[in-house]
From TrEMBL:
PROSITE patterns reported for this sequence: PPR
InterPro entries (UniProt xref): PPR/CCM1_RNA-binding (IPR051222), PPR_rpt (IPR002885), TPR-like_helical_dom_sf (IPR011990)
Key word Repeat present: yes
Native source species: Mucor flavus
Protein's recorded name: Leucine-rich PPR motif-containing protein, mitochondrial
Coiled-coil residue windows: none
């Protein structure tokens, strides 16, 4: 199992964040190119005025333009996108001059060429930098050929830069031929050119003969191996399991003080010498931003059975706190692959804590799932930390999955259970909330912190209000009064809501009167409930009574809030003048800027659309992601969503098996945002796929459901497959599901499955006759 690299902050992937921006040509660029500068195909378009092209090119080199980007991007992302856009514009203009206006290139000065090449220089440790580095190499190749540029010369420094780029791009033959050419053409090369080639050879196996050749060459020209060259040679020898040879070479060549001290200290112990020397090399690589080479050193040390914990910790710190999260993820994968349990736990802990600090629960869960998939159990403190943060951010499916696993491995703490209950209630996952509720309720009898007790009581009050469990309310209300949590008003408001849930208007009225007599008076929440009482009592919307409530609120100085407007909006018919007016008031309400209220309005508007037009058209509005299609005055704003948004769209798509493809697309989009549907959504998709005969895909969704929710498929899940086969008039296949999937996996048969089995037997008997 691999971790998605969606949060990789590299230039290549960050550019994909704003694909539309990058696809727009800022200047007229009638040239397409692929894989560097070598292959071009010219489009038919009007040519750019020649005099302005060179001016635009130099303008972009010396004073690049920056396009306005979405405010939601971080400064880091904006900078990376703008840098990518700038390179694209410069490269397009360079291509145009090279293919159509070669005379303009002859006007470029040495400074222009230097700046052009510099624009494409990137971090060599980043694998995504190969594209820009290739462009820089090709530009230098054009300069080397000497046919395009007359005012610029190909100097020794350009030759050395080409050797460096060829080495970084892993162009072994090209790098060696350039180095050979340079040694023949120039009296003495900079030692960095040799270091680049040695580094390239060290990354490949069976290159010792070439290394020895160039070591002899260095000796001939009077140059001593540097620390970087020594490192490359030692690593190459160790890759071939030549420990004695590597140790002997290190004793002979130790150009740095740190290496000299190690040689003197471990003169008689070659293994200890190499162990410590590799640590020094790893630190050097970290300082040089060669994080992937540090990973290479880790792998060598691990294979040789040497200590690696220090390297792993330093690499993880460097990678995480400098934005190279993808390297940290690779380090975790390395430790798992090499069965290094201790370091795998260290890496997973650092990664999970990092993602949690960034509120990126999606990737934190992927790390945890990767560990679980490989049979590695993270510590209780890390798991509970992830559980609490997932609960606070309302990732209710992941929260419940973690909670079940945590309960299986460790005794879950009271704090974690309380936040899990709060998450389930807020996410309206009341079935799961009733599973956690008894544990939290029993914890209230114990000596827990007051702020946790308040959270627990509020969650239990909400649970009783949403489920109509009056006994639960009475128990919790008694405990809150006993603990003196000052929740009397909150509790009585929940009592009113509980009676409303039960449909008992008279008792709800009595509870409302109790609020009025035992507290300082009803607040806005109580009045909102009173409006619901009026509608429930009359069986219709009595606008005069609702207006009386609003007038009474004004008399007692209780201002309607956005919840009041939302409550009223649900009373009016879709697209009525009053509902449109309420929408407008909500949009203009001071709280409308909050994410919660924007999502509520979006959900309300989408629900309204679903009552009037087909789900396929509503899905089109949703995927176009322009809020102006919901509210005309909200131009170019995104449609903010939550799990409820997807739930109402998925429910509409799943009502008809003809819209299964829309449901699958919604599910894919939902998962890409780190949100996961409940099992009932999966089961609806499974049922519709089975009815369309797509059994293989339906089984894949069963497996995905088990992975995402942490719940095993039961008889009810497989009944969806049975119904699909019966719908297709294939009773034998329906029977095979019962025997192979249900009975074989020891899944208890329920009444529905047994009835299906009897039906199948009747069909088969009829066919025999």
């Amino acid at each position: 199992m691999s971790i998605s690299r969606e949060s990789w902050k590299s230039q290549k992937l960050l550019a994909q964040v704003c694909g539309q921006c990058l696809s727009k040509r800022i200047l007229v660029t009638p040239v397409k190119f692929s894989r560097g500068l070598g292959t071009q195909s010219v489009k038919e378009s009007s040519p750019t005025p020649v005099p302005s092209l060179l001016e635009s090119f130099r303008q972009e080199l010396y004073q690049p333009t920056h396009n306005d980007l979405a405010l939601s991007y971080s400064p880091w992302v904006k900078k990376a996108i703008q840098r990518r856009q700038g390179r694209k514009r410069v490269l397009n203009m360079y291509q145009l001059m090279k293919n159509r206006h070669e005379s303009l290139l002859s006007q470029l000065s040495q400074t222009d060429i230097d700046l052009l090449v510099q624009k494409f220089m990137t971090n060599p440790d980043d694998p995504s930098s190969n594209g820009p580095s290739t462009e820089a190499f090709e530009i230098l190749q054009d300069l080397k050929e000497g046919q395009l540029f007359t005012q610029a010369k190909f100097r020794q420094e350009e030759m050395e830069l080409m050797i460096y780029l060829a080495s970084e791009l892993k162009l072994t033959k090209r790098a060696l031929s350039l180095l050979t050419e340079a040694t023949e053409q120039y009296d003495q090369l900079n030692i960095s050119s040799y270091e680049s080639v040695f580094g390239l050879l060290a990354s490949q196996k069976k290159q010792m003969k070439k290394m020895e050749y160039w070591l002899q060459h260095l000796e001939k020209v009077g140059l001593q191996p540097t620390k970087s060259i020594v490192r490359s040679v030692v690593l190459s020898k160790l890759m071939s399991n030549q420990l004695e040879e590597a140790s002997a070479f290190l004793r002979k060549h130790h150009p740095a003080d740190a290496l000299t001290q190690l040689v003197n200290r471990h003169i008689e112990d070659p293994r200890e010498l190499l162990d410590n020397a590799l640590n020094v090399f790893a630190v050097d690589c970290l300082e040089e931003w060669r994080l992937n080479q540090t990973r290479h050193i880790y792998s060598i040390k691990r294979e040789l059975g040497m200590s690696t914990s220090v390297i792993v910790k330093r690499l993880m710190d460097k990678a995480l706190f400098t934005g190279h999260v993808h390297t940290a993820e690779r380090m975790l994968k390395d430790t798992i692959t090499m069965e290094d349990t201790a370091n795998a736990l260290t890496c997973s802990k650092r990664l999970i804590q990092w993602y949690v600090s960034q509120k990126n629960i999606k990737h934190a869960m992927l790390v945890w799932e990767q560990m679980e998939h490989n049979g590695l159990i993270i510590s209780q403190d890390v798991m509970e930390g992830l559980l609490v943060h997932a609960a606070k951010l309302k990732y209710h499916v992941d929260t419940m999955k973690l909670y079940r696993r945590c309960n299986h491995l460790y005794p879950t703490s009271t704090e974690a259970s309380i936040y899990v209950l709060q998450c389930m209630v807020r996410s309206k996952a009341f079935t799961n909330a009733t599973l956690v509720g008894p544990e939290v309720e029993s914890a209230l009898d114990k000596n827990i912190k007051p702020h946790l007790a308040r959270i627990a009581c509020k969650a239990l009050f909400s649970l009783s209000a949403q489920t109509g469990d009056i006994n639960l309310f009475e128990r919790v209300f008694g405990l809150s009064e006993k603990l003196k949590l000052s929740l009397t008003h909150r509790g009585l408001t929940s009592l009113t809501a509980t009676y409303l849930k039960l449909g008992d208007v008279e008792l709800a009225k009595q509870a409302f009167q109790t609020v009025a007599s035992h507290t300082e008076g009803p607040d806005v929440v109580d009045f909102n409930l009173l409006m619901r009482m009026i509608v429930l009592e009359d069986g219709k919307v009595d606008y005069e009574k609702i207006f009386d409530v609003l007038k009474h609120m004004d008399l007692v100085n209780v201002s309607p809030n956005e919840t009041t407007l939302r409550t009223m909006a649900t009373f009016y018919k879709s697209q009525s003048e009053m509902q449109d007016s309420l929408y407008q008031k909500l949009l203009q309400h001071p709280s409308s800027v909050s994410r919660f209220n924007q999502i509520f309005l979006n959900n309300l508007a989408l629900s309204s659309l679903l009552t009037r037009i087909d789900i396929s058209k509503v899905a089109g509005v949703f995927f176009r992601n322009n809020r102006a299609e919901l509210f005309p005055n909200e131009k170019n704003d995104r449609i903010l969503v939550n799990g409820i948004t997807y739930k109402l769209l998925l429910d509409a798509a799943n009502e008809d098996r003809g819209h299964t493809s829309i449901a699958e697309k919604l599910l894919k989009d939902m998962l890409s945002r780190g949100l996961k549907p409940t099992r009932d959504v999966y089961e609806c998709i499974i049922r519709n796929l089975a009815k369309k005969g797509k059994i293989t895909k339906a089984r894949k969704y069963i497996a995905q459901m088990e992975q995402d929710t942490g719940e095993k498929a039961n008889a009810a899940t497989y009944t969806k497959l049975i119904d699909g086969f019966l719908y297709l008039k294939k009773p034998l296949l329906a029977k095979s599901v019962i025997t192979e999937d249900i009975i074989k996996n020891n899944i208890p048969l329920d009444d529905v499955v047994e009835e299906k089995l009897k039906k199948i037997e009747r069909i088969l008997k009829t066919r025999k006759k």
